[in-house]
Amino acid sequence: MSQELVLGIYVFIMAIFVGFEVISRVPSVLHTPLMSGTNAIHGIVVLGAFLVAGSADSPLLHVLGFVAVVFGAANVFGGFVVTDRMLEMFRKRETTAPEKKDA
Amino acid sequence: MLDLRASAIAVSYIVAAVLFIFGLKQLSSPSTARAGNRLAAIGMALALAATLLDRQIVSFWTIAIGTLIGAAVGIYFGRTVQMTAMPQMVALFNGMGGATAALVSVAEFLRLSRIGEPIGVGEATSIVLGTAIGAISFTGSIIAFGKLQEILPGKPLQFPLQRLVNGLILVAVIALGAMVVRSGGTPVLWLLFAGALLLGAMFVLPIGGGDMPVVISILNSLTGLAAALTGFVLHNQMLVVAGVLVGASGTLLTLLMSTAMNRSVGNVLFGAFGAAGSGTAASASAVGHTVRQTTPEDTAIALAYARSVVIVPGYGLAVAEAQHTVRELATDLESRGVNVKYAIHPVAGRMPGHMNVLLAEANVPYDQLLEMDQVNGQFPQTDVVLVVGANDVVNPAARDDPSSPIYGMPILDVDRARNIIVLKRSMGHGFAGIDNALFYHEKTRMLFGDARQSLTQVGQALKTA
Description:
The complex is a heterodimer. Chain A is mainly α. Chain A has one domain. Chain A contains four helices and no strands. Chain B is an alpha/beta fold. Chain B folds into two domains: 267 residues, no CATH class; 181 residues, Rossmann fold (3-Layer(aba) Sandwich), CATH 3.40.50. Helix content of chain B is 59%, strand content 7%. Chain B has a six-stranded parallel sheet. In chain B, 55% of the residues are buried. Classes of the chains: A mainly alpha, B alpha/beta. Chains A and B meet through helix 1, helix 2, helix 3 and helix 4 of A and helix 1, helix 2, helix 3, helix 4 and helix 8 of B.
């Protein structure tokens, strides 16, 4: 095994612990935004698509790279936009909540 | 030593990974969640901008045009999608991420083969796994999208020897993967890609609509894993971190959802729950009892003179898009001094937290939303429970009838309230395809019809009550 692979596996394992630690604190109220937010984050693979599309030297690689960039970009932009829209609604409620309690 | 450009890229990636973690951390509270999402988006922008500095990139045209198209499509749908359609939206974006990961893995393999560079076992394994998992996630998400969008039937699609066929496809995919790792070969990788695409579709087809909260969570976690594997392929640790964070999130949600249904993940995936024919367990208490119907006027009176009302939303609320109507009704009741709360079952709807998002859209303050454990003790003191389009999550058979297929699933104990009013389209069965003794309960009144229409009528009647 190359040293780089070993390092990658270390990072992989550490990230699992960090991930579980951070995500287990997310309340169930926010589970849908959590899902769509993490959805946007895995769109990070689009940077791999950038590398493929930017270095393509055959028609096939051009096509693969292009399709991957389109899908990945839609994933990233759509994911963050829709999550922001959702979370905006959650924020609004905090300002209305105290009034409701008084009523 | 790294040159300046490479250092800038490396530092940007580290900062991006930290921003992702901080962003997710801020999702632990609704008040900081939006800032957290923006933090993650900044991390993403930084990582993508840094990637453009990579010397490997010689032409920017494909990237620019592809990003423009993808961003336009993503932003358009992200802005316009209805909150009720959120589960299918998430499934679709998830599938795109999976497809990207698979395509990047395949392309990297092609590139390395072309330049004749030897591909190490570790690298080849990452490529094989990234391709397979990304492809499974892609077609699986597309089928889930089809089911949620009701292009495909929500019922499990089954055929004879299905498990055997799926098992054989799985074995074939694994064998092809082993071949690629051992001896390479582009045609074998393409076959593997095709096999994994087929496998993804076949594995989601037999899963019923009501199990979608679990399926979407699994697919989410698979795409995260595929992204992390792409990180191994491209020797990019930041991709590994980001992918694993998503994988962890999806895994946690999967476990939470299956616990909330009292079923193992394996049972959800391979049980074909809710298939035709599982409706044999009609509860004994249902036999010989009749359903008592009520009218919007009587419902309005019952609600108006109650002290405490608990609303139990389910998938039917989403289908009827009745979240605003229910909120208006609740506001009217509150102005009459009625104490109104909402009881949210973890698997109500089609994705984790589905009901919370819908009610948030309708401006329901989240201190009114009670989780199952909080609310169950309060039902005996509740005057009226209003069940809006929920079924299996309020079926007392889960608690009382060991022969029921959903026995043992934690439910909302609405039958312990003083009065129960159930809004339902018809006497049709819930997703689990089993009878619900709650509907025949002597304290229960049924108000048939489209949830939004019924609630509007109740609201009108309330003004004169």
